[in-house]
Write a structure and sequence with these properties.
Largest sheet: 4 strands, antiparallel
Distance between the termini: 21 Å
Strand content: 15-25%
Helix content: 55-70%
Strand order of the largest sheet: 5-4-6-7
Number of strands: 10
Order of helices and strands: HEEHHHHHEHEEHEEEEEHHHHH
Number of helices: 13
Shape: elongated
Structural class: alpha+beta
Radius of gyration: 28 Å
Number of domains: 3
Length: about 400
Amino acid sequence: MTIFVAIVGLGLLIFVHELGHFVASLALRMRPRKFYIGFPPALIKTTRGGIEYGLGAIPLGGFVKIPGMHRPAPSDVDHAFGRALAEAPGLVGPVDRLRNALAAGDHAAAHDTLEILRDALPQKHLSPGPRSAAEKGITELLDGLGPDAYWRAPTWKRVTAIAAGPAANILFAVVLFTVLFMSTGGRATTVVGEVAPDAPAAAMGLQAGDRIVEIDGQRVGATDISRAISGSGGEPLTVVVVRNGDQVTLGPAAARRTDDDVYRLGFVLRGEGLSLVAATGEAARVTGLVTKDIGTALTRLVSGEGRKDIASPVGIVQGSSDAAERGVDSFFWVLGLISLSIALLNLLPLLPLDGGHIVFALLEGVRGRAVGREVYERVSFVGLGLVLLLFFIGLSNDINRLS
């Protein structure tokens, strides 16, 4: 069940990311054509107001299709009409005119020729494959020549539409952290909030709601509990708690050493909620610290270190599932951290990631003209290769962890 909850949580973060792109492009009058969670083939899809909404069968991401991401090029014509020309030679004339118009930058002529081709296509005897490719090509080329095409927009609009995805994930994390700080994530108390299953605390009988008063015969306050357990060095501890008005002695049990060389019994203290202002400040502080840590990890990766820190969607789901087993609060904390990770990963200056599109938008703004399609394709090929490399490194790490 927790695996399902983790998958739903990851899907929610993808939805938030794509919703950022979607809302921004609508507000900037670059009307999207599609809004999908997951990648095709579509399991469910519907069209509303000229926009196709769908749920894809491949749950590894999502996308918003903004019209005219690239300036239409002659190579697009060959891709769209190549097979149709072999079956309908009568289309050669208008297709050549379309190709020449795009090469010359005469977009008005190209638009008129596309209208002619769209009217002529139903009258030609074409097999389903070539007909579908030609129809799709006409739609995409008309979108690319339309006034709401992405490549036609000012640089600031293009950057805003692309940056809105990572920004939505960052905002989601800040809001989530703020809510947690306002509920149970604020100042620590001496009351146990959650006990991890199979942890030493669970073995000694510690329960949520217990109020800890002593550890190894020493009275403790909220700030002393973690220090007392960590300072035990793994030696058995006894814990005295107040439960239903009675004092109960638990243990002894030895704290378990974590990967960070810290000893823990495996429980979380209940927090005392903060005010909205204080919680927002703490959420912003945590977001800044986590962002810095993730940035440091990425820098270490470039220098050849930090390979073990990478996780694939498999590891992300497993980590989320483990957090869900520890309780709702733990799950939401992890969800916020994953949201930040998604945002920062997408801001890497690599195509096809958002950061790569932002870099190219800025570059084209400085140059005053579009970068050639072949440059986009070559850089995207390299970027996609690096992204896949990160994916397989993460998958290898996850397999090792799970085994």
